Amino acid sequence: MPARQTAQPGSLRLVVPANVRHNSGGNVYNAALARELAVLGVDVETCPVYGGWPVGSAADRKRLAARLGDDGTAAGSAAGAARNTDAGHTVTLVDGLLACGAPDELEAAAAAGRPAWILLHMPLDDTGSNEAGLERRALLAAAGVICTSTSAAARIRARHGLDDVLVALPGTDSAALAAGSEPPHLLAVAALLPNKDQALLLAALSHLTDLPWTASLVGSDTADPAYAAQLRGTVARLGLRDRTRIPGELRGGALDAEWAAADLSLLISRAETYGLVVTESIARGVPVVVRAGTGAVEALAAGTPAPPEASTAAPADSTAALPGTAVALGTDPAPLAEALRRWLSDPGVRTRWRAAALDARDRLPGWDATARTVLAAVTPDHPAGQPAAAPEEIRRRNIPLPHHTGGQ
Predict the structure, then answer these.
(1) Domain coordinates in residue numbering, the chain
(2) What is the pLDDT of residue 383?
(3) Which terminus, N or C, of the chain has the lesser number of Cβ atoms within 10 Å?
């Protein structure tokens, strides 16, 4: 990778995707990072770029190249390269969804003396060698790579043999404690997409109709309308209409009401690099069920004093210290149904999970810690790039972001 920029920046340009169809975890992270960097005294400019990412058209990549320029200077300008050596240069941090499919533009910026940093929320799909090749070139051209989870960093290191990969975990905003419901209310906040596997959740719930519960599947139904329609049809077919709602994406008071009513939340995505909704759940004292082997297990352990080393493969009994559990899942709904039945039927399990969530709630790091980690990476000499305040102090002064709306 090119030599890292070390001067204190005059400003930081955060280049982000403009047309993600739902409120993703990456969008929440980017907005929180920009907010907290500004609190630390950094002049932050958020630059949305439209395009069919992760690769985009020639016109899309041209727009990205313009954003990689220094204060509008075109890539390759000698004057721009000279300015980059000054103490007041602009540091560019570009979302990996844009950067990883556009290596030509990253290489041009590096050749001009203005290598951009990559903020990588999720590696490109590794099913295609072409995409992997583009990603590798982009990462090598970057000033540095910051991943937003250790699972993403591990995949990048393993796939491309890169050692110099940093991690800046997501923070969490404080939230009101959930009161819960009677009967227990289950909440799944995620965009209605096949990867989120709400179909498996509905199949599991169909095996629990002898127990009292209600459920809401809250998330964008516009990203994949056919899948959303399939889920609503499944609710009717399985006879779950009286106790299961699929309201679409919610915001504001409607979303707050769902969280306030929740007793347990679920994120059982087939693939997940972290899962912000998990820590958002814990911030409300609501335990979570996640799929073992995904990055959501890391989020489940956030705020716990000593996360179990083997939690991704551990059975439910061995994850009692966590605010919930990680369940090994495939296509069979039985393991998930079994875990939910145990929670619904055993007051001791519900009490332990709730207590663990309440304990972890007070230990979650704020977005202040995320911003300091990023700032220390891109500008090690910046006076604000130092250890963050204690989580309690961070939580007291955090300015709330809009809650996750089910777009992740």
Answers:
(1) 11-171+366-397, 185-361
(2) 57
(3) N
Residue 381, pLDDT score: 65
Give the burial class of 20: count Cβ atoms within 10 A of its Cβ; 0-12 exposed, 13-18 middle, 19 or more buried.
middle
Q: What is the distance, to the nearest Å, from the Cα of residue 88 to the centroid of all Cα atoms in its chain? A: 31
Provide the token pair at 92. Answer: 């560019």
What pLDDT is attached to residue 79?
34
The CA-CA-CA angle for residues 211, 266, 175, to 5°, reads 110
What is the Cα–Cα distance from 140 to 387, expressed in whole angstroms? 28
Q: Where are the beta strands (DSSP E) in 36-137?
A: 44-49, 90-95, 117-120
pLDDT at 310: 41
CB atoms within 10 A of CB 365: 20
State yes or no: cis peptide before 54, omega within 30 of 0: yes
Q: How far apart are the first and last CA of the chain?
A: 31
| Predicted TM-score of the model (pTM) | 0.82
Tokens of 121: 């929320």
* Contact by Cβ (8 Å): 281, 155: no
State the Cα–Cα distance between residues 129 and 135, nearest whole angstrom: 10
Determine phi and psi for 291, rounding to 5 degrees.
-85, 130
Judge: domain 185-361, CATH 3.30.1330.10: no
- In the prediction, which pLDDT does 20 show? 66
Regions of the chain with pLDDT less than 70: 1-10, 20-23, 70-88, 126-129, 306-320, 381-408
Q: Do domains 11-171+366-397 and 185-361 have the same CATH topology?
A: yes
Q: Of 188, 190, 152, which Cα lies nearest the Cα of 169?
A: 152
Token pair of 370 as six digits: 């995320």
The set of residues, in sequence order, having a beta carbon less than 8 Å from that of 5 and lying 6+ positions away, is 84, 89, 91, 115, 143, 378, 379
- The CATH fold of domain 11-171+366-397: Rossmann fold (3.40.50)
Encoded tokens for 207: 């095996």
CA 152 to chain centre: 11
Cβ neighbors of 183 (< 8 A, separation 6 or more) are 212, 213, 214
Measured over the CA atoms of residue 367, residue 368, residue 373 and residue 378, the dihedral's sign is positive
Tell me phi and psi for residue 259, to 5 degrees: -65, -40
Q: What is the DSSP string of 189-221?
A: ES-S-GGG-HHHHHHHHTT-TTS--EEEEES-S
CA distances from 117 to 139, 140, 215, 375 (A): 9, 10, 41, 11
What torsion do the CA atoms of 146, 150, 155, 160 make, to the nearest 10 degrees?
A: 40
